[in-house]
Write a sequence for this structure.
């Protein structure tokens, strides 16, 4: 091996992948490297959608390699490929879906659906292929939040399944696409469970990296059944900092633990409110609750979203904040949460997968 190659590898071995706590070499992220004639070509493949970090990482690699003696030029290309995760043992994977993320809350009205749609959009903005399954049978709201016109129906894919409806670059399926408004509200338990089962088994998802499931609020039979039938890679609990919501969030966490679904973290919604008149910020529903339960259950506080008029208005008008203001402050919080989630799942998948990634190295 040439001295230059050794030096290049040594530099790559010192560069950490953002959010991953691993360097490029150890993570097996380098899938091609050529140093011919002092022209360095590095191909990097990350295991999480990386649009938000690729540019900065590319620049920091190029800058560090350019300092080496013998380097005439340097080109770094970064791509990503999301791996599938197993979910609970014995539950077969869903066709066309690599990872299922359940978004749940113990209590209704804490902003679970708003968080789901914004996180899904944020994950797509990071470069992933994403879908949403609205399993909130009694109050399906994803169609409205995604701006899908009433009366639009999913098209049959084949004799047994429907294609999801595309909106804002996401694939989506919801009970609201299939029944008249309010029909589901009067369903009794078994009917609702049956309808949900149909949604789960008869949707033909197309090549998704992540499917977000907007779970029904609470921790009753439907939630438990869902957790036992769907191969969930991990769950996210949405809560407000309020005592009662936190108590319910704890029940949610315990339910997922019972069925062996890892809780990837907690999102605290409606954390604070900033007065649009005077700019004063107040913790209307209390302070520090999300962090407290994340610590109690040894999971992570993934992010905090304020109670903001624009978050509500944009979701209600069919263009949630991440789509309406992709560069806005709230979109950035959702993207950071999405990235953290993707990295946590990737680390979990890498641990489960003992196969050493292959490094293809061109001769120099
Ligand atoms: N961070 C926020 N700031 C302002 N309004 C919000 C925020 N999050 C959610 N909302 C609003 O609060 C209301 C309830 O939110 P959402 O429907 O997402 O809650 P949910 O927990 O899914 O409710 P349900 O349990 O009824 O399904 C909606 O009108 C939504 O626009």
């Amino acid at each position: 091996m040439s001295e230059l190659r050794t030096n290049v590898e040594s530099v790559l071995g010192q560069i950490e992948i953002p959010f991953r706590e691993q360097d490029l070499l150890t993570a097996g992220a380098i899938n091609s490297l050529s140093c011919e004639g002092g022209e360095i070509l590095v191909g990097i493949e990350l295991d999480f959608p990386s649009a938000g970090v690729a540019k900065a990482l590319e620049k920091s690699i190029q800058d560090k390699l350019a300092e080496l003696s013998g380097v005439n030029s340097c080109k770094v290309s970064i791509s990503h490929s999301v791996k599938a995760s197993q979910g609970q043992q014995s539950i077969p994977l869903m066709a066309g879906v690599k990872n299922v993320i359940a978004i749940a809350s113990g209590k209704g009205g804490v902003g679970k659906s708003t968080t789901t749609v914004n996180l899904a959009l944020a994950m797509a903005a990071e470069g992933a292929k994403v879908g949403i399954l609205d399993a909130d049978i009694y109050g399906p709201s994803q169609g409205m939040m995604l701006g899908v016109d009433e009366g639009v129906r999913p098209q049959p894919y084949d004799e047994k399944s429907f294609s999801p409806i595309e909106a804002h670059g996401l694939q989506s399926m919801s009970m609201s696409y299939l029944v008249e408004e309010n029909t589901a509200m009067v369903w009794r338990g078994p009917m609702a469970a049956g309808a949900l089962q149909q949604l789960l088994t008869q949707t033909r998802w197309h090549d998704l990296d992540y499917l977000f499931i907007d779970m029904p609020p609470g921790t009753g039979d439907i939630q438990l059944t869902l957790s036992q039938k769907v191969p969930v890679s991990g769950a996210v609990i949405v809560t407000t900092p309020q005592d009662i919501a936190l108590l319910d969030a704890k029940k949610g966490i315990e339910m997922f633990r019972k069925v062996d679904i890892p809780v990837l973290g907690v999102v605290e919604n409606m954390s604070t409110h900033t007065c649009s008149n005077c700019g004063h910020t107040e913790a209307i529903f209390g302070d520090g609750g999300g962090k407290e339960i994340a610590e109690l259950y040894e999971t992570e506080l993934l992010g905090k979203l304020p109670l903001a008029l624009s978050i509500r208005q944009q979701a209600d008008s069919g263009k949630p904040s991440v789509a309406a203001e992709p560069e806005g402050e709230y979109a950035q919080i959702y993207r950071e949460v999405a990235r953290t989630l993707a990295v946590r799942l990737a680390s979990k998948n890498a641990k489960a997968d003992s196969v050493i990634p292959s490094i293809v190295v061109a001769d120099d």
In short: Residues 105, 108-114, 136, 139, 141, 217, 269-270, 305, 307-308, 311-312, 315-316 surround adenosine-5'-triphosphate (CB under 6 Å). The CA atoms of residues 47 and 82 lie 5 Å apart. Confidence is low (pLDDT under 50) at residues 354-364.
